[in-house]
Amino acid sequence: MPKRSAGILLYRRTETGLELLLVHPGGPFWAKKDLGAWSIPKGEYSEGEDALAAARREFEEEPGACADGELLPLGELVQGGGKVVTAFALIGDFDPAVLKSNTFTLEWPPRSGRTVSFPEVDRAQWFSPTEAEARILGGQRQFIARLLKAIGP
């Protein structure tokens, strides 16, 4: 059974146009990666758990914001490693300066015996759809196209 994740693609309309919120994964493996490394705020959920409830929970855990409002289903995609990601879109606002992510622990450096805590996401940023397409993981790029098709430019 493949691992499953659910998340929310937050979007807003500004004077300069449509903007999408993406998050950058925390930890040493992603520290120097940018293009193709960002993601929608998402996280794994267990079999039998509702994807919508998991997406709302993960939005609270990763950027640290409440995902109130009507969610627009964007369907599922399979990422390169086989993980199935279910996404929903939500119109709203978020100030990246107030990002408050949960953390995970990792032995770092490897084989050092030292355990270090890292944020699950180390930053959030608003991007135009074109810039978001360049920044987001390839396995999630289609969510942007689906959002644009659903809401228009």
Instruction: For the record, give the distance between the C-alpha atoms at the N and C termini, rounded to a whole number.
Output: 37 Å
Determine the strand fraction and express it as a percent band: 35-45%
* Overall helicity: 10-25%
Gyration radius over CA = 15 Å
- Apparent shape: globular
Average pLDDT rating? 94
User: What order do the helices and strands follow?
Assistant: EEEHEEEEEHH
Structural class given helices, strands, pairing? alpha+beta
Query: How many beta-strand elements?
Result: 8
Unreliable runs: none
Largest sheet: 6 strands, mixed
Count of DSSP H/I helices: 3
Brief account:
The protein is an alpha+beta fold. It is 19% helix and 36% strand. Strands 1, 2, 3, 4, 5 and 8 form a six-stranded mixed beta sheet that branches. It has a two-stranded antiparallel sheet with strand order 6-7.
